[in-house]
Amino acid sequence: MTLIACFTDSYIDILAACLRLKPEKMILMGEASAMGAPVKRYREILEGRNISTEIILKDIHGKDIADICDLFKSLLEAEEDYVIDLTGGDEQVFMAVGAALAGMDSEKRARVRVEQYSPEADAILDVGNDNRPVPCKPISLSVAELLRLHGALLHPDTATGETNKERKKVEKLWALVAKS
After folding, report:
1. How far apart are CA 40 and CA 11, in angstroms?
2. Residue 163 pLDDT
């Protein structure tokens, strides 16, 4: 099975899909320059759990809907099962997926499931099946995996109110934990 996902800065969404589905391949679509470091961390975490997923990057930055639609059509040509995770996608991707699927014959279309995480429902919804929740077991990450996923860096948005000295202590601690 191949997972096609949209890159987002919410790194946990993509990793959660990989941990849940354990795909043979994941095609990650987004801006190539932004995907490098997070993809390295995805690989480390997946390898640490003995999940062998080949990660393929597709740069769609600056592409129009027709180009993205053509990319989806070409990706869905192989005789295999696909899950398209729209969680990190935008309107352009949604439209391109819809157009690509509309042009497929029913036999090929039956091999494709489109899903999206819904924070309101706190569930993964099968977009092509009346937004019914996809049955799945909860996943969990260790503290070390969470730190590794985010590069073990203190996020600047959390830095309000503390002194530089306190921030440096926390960053040293996080760096130490990330190495273990």
Report:
1. 12
2. 57
DSSP E strands, the chain = 2-6, 25-30, 54-59, 82-85, 112-118, 123-126, 132-133
Q: pTM for this structure?
A: 0.80
- CA 64-70-76 angle, 5° bins: 135
Computed over every residue of the chain, the mean pLDDT equals 86
Q: Which two tokens stand for residue 3?
A: 């997972």
Helices 11-21, 32-48: axis angle to 10 degrees equals 40
Instruction: Please report the DSSP string for 31-75 in residue order.
Output: -HHHHHHHHHHHHHHHHHTT---EEEEEE-TT--HHHHHHHHHHH
3-class state of residue 90 by DSSP: coil
Whether the Cβ atoms of residue 29 and residue 4 lie closer than 8 Å to each other: yes
What pLDDT shows up at residue 152? Answer: 72
Query: Which tokens is 166 given?
Result: 């306190």
